Each structure stands twice: as C-alpha cells, then as structure tokens.
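Lab notebook, page 48
Experiment: co-folding of the full assembly
Goal: obtain a model of how the components sit together before planning crosslinking
Operator: M.T.
Materials (sequences as entered):
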Amino acid sequence: METRRRFLSWLTAGLGAVAAIAASIPAIGFLFEPPPRRPREDWRAVGALDDFRIGETVEARFVDAAAVPWAGQASDVAVWLRRTSATEFVAFSLNCTHLGCPVRWESGAQLFLCPCHGGVYYADGSVAGGPPPRALARYPTRVDGSRVMVRTRALSV
Amino acid sequence: MHSLFEFWEWLKRLARHPVPPGTDWRYVLGSATLVAFLVQVVTGTVLATVYVPSTADAYHSLEVITNGGGLGRILRGMHYFGAGAMMILIGAHISRVFLTGSYKHPREMNWFTGAILFLLTLIMAFTGQLMRWDQDGIWSSVIAAEQAARTPGIGRWLAHVILGGATVGGPTLSRAFATHVFFIPGLIIVGVVFHIALLLKNGISERTSLGAPRESADYIPWYRELLEKRGRPFWPFAAWRDAVMAFAVVAAIIALAVVVGPKALGRPPDPTAVDASPRPDWYFMWYFAFLAWIPKATEPYVIVLAPLLFGLVLVALPFVFGHGGRRFRDRPWAIPIIVAAVVIVGFFWQLGERAPWSPDFAAPPLAADVTGAKVFHDRGCEFCHAIGHDGGHYGPDLTTVGRRMDHAQIISRILGGGNGMPGYALKLGDGELAALVSFLESRH
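Observation: model returned without errors.
Model output:
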C-alpha cells in the first residue's frame, strides 16, 4: 500500500510536471528569446553630402533595421550627426548613457545635455558632468558617393 | 435546487466566519485595495475594447477614448485614479500590517502573498504608464531597459526582453500590453485567491491590546479560544465597515475622474523628437529623483541592487522576524521605520517634482544689456546657473557670485570646470571670456 501510494504520487506529480514543462518550453522560448549574436543592422541614407556643413551638428533620422510593419513612428531613430571633414561624419546616439533619455545638442554651449538627470557631454561625446558612466555611443557612418549613410544598431546599453 | 441551497449556505457560513473583538476601521485597507483592483479590472477591460496595442495606433486610439465624447474620458479617468488609489491603499495596508506586527506567526504566508501582490502592482503601474504610449511612455520603456541592462551577465538579455528587440519598436508596446492585460492580472488574481484563502485559514490578526501569548506554539490555541468566546461574525459586524470604505473609494475614483479627468496624453510618441523631457508618473517620481541624487560612484551597484534588495526585504520579512511580540514595546523600530519610509519617499518625491538637476532649456535671455549677459545666455551657462529669477539650478546660483569669487577664481572655474561643471576652455572666444568674467564679477 505504501509503495503504491509513493508510486502514484510520483506518477501524478511527474506527469503533471512533464506536461507543464513541455507546454511551457515553446512559450518561454518565444518570450525570452536571447538576443541574436549579430542583431540586424543596415546602412541607411540620411541625406545628401551637400546638405551638411563641416563642423555643424544636426539631427538625422532613419528607420531601424528591424522595423515591423505596424511600428509607426516607434521604429524611427534619430542621431546627432556632425560632418567633421569633406568626407567624414560622426553620429552620436541620442541615448544618454545614464538611463537612455534623449540628449539635446546645444550649439551655443557646444554640449550635449540630458533633460532627465542632468548628464552633460562635450562635443566629442565624452562625459563632462552629471551621472553618465561613459561617453555617448556612436553609430558607424560612411559617405556613399553623394549620400551620407548611417548604420543602424541596437540601443546602446 | 438542493445543491444550489447548499452552495448558498456554504457562502453564508464563509461570510459569517468569526473575527476577533475590536476589529475596527484599521482593518478596511486590504478590502479597499481589492475594490480598487476590481475597478481597474472593469475599467481596463472596457478600455481594451477600443485601445489598439500597436505603436502606430495606440496614441490615436487613446485620443479617441479621451476626446471622442461620451464616457471614454471618464473611464480613462477612473482607470488612472483607480491606479493611484490602488498604490495609496496598498501602501497604507502594508504600513498598517507592518505597524501592528500582523505578519508574524502564523500569518507569514499572508504577508508573503501580499508582498508578491504589491510587487505585481508595481509592474502594473509601470506598464500602465508605458501604455499611454505618448512621449513619456516611449521613453519609460528605454529607461526601464537601460536600468535592467546594468544587471551583470544577463543585462543585455533583460533589456532585449523588455524592448522585445534590440531597440524600441513595435514589439515594445505589444509586450507591455500583454504584460499589463494578461500576465500580471492573471497572477494578481491567483495571488488574491491565496491571500484571501490564507486570511480565512489563519483568521484576521487580533488587536495587540488583547495580549496574545508571545510563544508561537501557544498562539493558535489561544486565538481559537478567543474567536470561540469573544468572536463576532464577519458578516455583517465587520463587513459593514469594508462596505462603507469600498463606497468611499469608488465614489472618490468616480468623482476625480469626472471633475479632474484622466492624465492628459503627452506629446505624440515620436522617438526622434529630441526636445523630449521624459518624466515618470507620480508614483515613480521619488525613484526618478533617487537615481539622480545617489553618488555617482555607487550608481552601478544601486541601480541593480536597490530594486532587488527592496523586493527581497519585503518578501523575506516574516520569515526573518516572524516571531516575538507584536506590540510597539517589543518592536521599538516599527514606528521609526514607517516614519523614515514616508519621510524619505516624500523628500525624493518633492525633489523629483522640482528636478533641480535638469537643465533649464527654456531660460530666457537675461535682462542686463551687456555683452557678458548675452554670452551667459547664448553659451549655455544659464541652463544650469541662475542669475536673479532666470536660469537653471543644477549649478550654484550666480546672482551674487562677484561677492564670493575674485577675477582669477572666476576665470579658472569657467575654463577648467570641475564639480560636475564642464570646462569652457575651447568654447569661448577671447572677447567672450572677458565679457563674461566682467559680467559675473559685477554680480553683487
């Protein structure tokens, strides 16, 4: 009787657990999928070379590489783009390295300022003050003929 | 018909379970929290019939709900103030249970399930704020991902789970929606069932003045005898107070929804709007300020450990301090802890409302008609420094800086920065520096 009780207890709990795990694997796997090793990235044209003046920092916009059709504006990305020479550009991430709020370029002060907790960055993206732990992230850029291209990337975390 | 009758009798017996003598107004906070939750279930379900959980349309669907005429505005208002009521009542309930030591033996699991319910409610509050999917909504998803990303080892993965991808996009809102509408409410309902089942099983904690035995082993027989000898049926001798409180909570939620209306939608959800200034809803404002206030060196640890520790302390409390007397004289720290919690949260909350560390982007040019005043404004000094009534408050007020700093000190601070101020060595022309310094020197 005792053996039978133990056997039936294990059987019941075991079958239940196996069924629960089997049903959960695809659900949990789908939900908590690890990020791909190489996130989808793409070059995006952000304007014509002649649109940008050397030394000026302006906002450039493009659509993220992994945009879903129903994203609307949510997959739009902005970067602070500066033309540094005839053929070179730097693109700074909008996201403050503290908690990700959008930094503003203030050309008079030649600083990036964060509205959330007062992070300040110099023009080269390095930290000038406030809580940010590291410099602003950069996006790869290149000039393709007469077009200026920025490469999409994951949110810098 | 017989079984229906039996079912009815069973319900009546349940409702007439005995409660200890002296069960008064302090005991209505839990049921009031449940009532606020039920308001959320009803209003939320109805809102979901119109709300579109896609990043392209969510904002417009909320505009239709809010401004389309009819009852949508009131429903959204009730959902907004219902959320606030839930946060306030759950906080009051936890404080009361903590102050009276009601989490102690044999009610450890009552506290445990309640603590889990509180943590789930915080997730509801966060995802609810995000689902407004206005400018604050979109940025709160980024801010959550950035905080989670600080976790060692699994940070990147956590951020990916929160955003539903490598960056903000369509899946971000869909995830928050499913979390807010299915996952967490489902868990809350399970939690409430257990919380109430434990309440019925262990009985409501009696007033400490009744002098329960301090030994845990003696408590249960003593409590049983108390109920037998002096207990009164919950229905209607205690239930009427819950009903009055429930009525007051619902009336307050409806009144606020009608008179004040829901929280206004912020600007449209455009992640490329670079002049956004994200702010959390009021119930997270104190934490927003806390993250700005903590010393920079401690930050990598605090961002990860503070929420973990908060959850752990909350959940583990009855298992560590589950025994011993419940009266204030046995627990000298009970009142100071609650007072400290209220003072600390209150302090950070008002700090967050003022956010003195945020640059004042809209500071107007100074009235003084000299070149230095113009430089002070145009070169961004005024974002962080005030002169008179204008300017930010991140850095020191410079209204009378000429009194405390001399010529050389002012120059060296402007060029070198320091104490969180950027250096301006390469930014100012010669004429600008001289004009700015003479302007600042003349501030007395």
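Interpretation: The first helix of chain A runs from residue 2 to 31.
Next step: discuss with group before ordering constructs.
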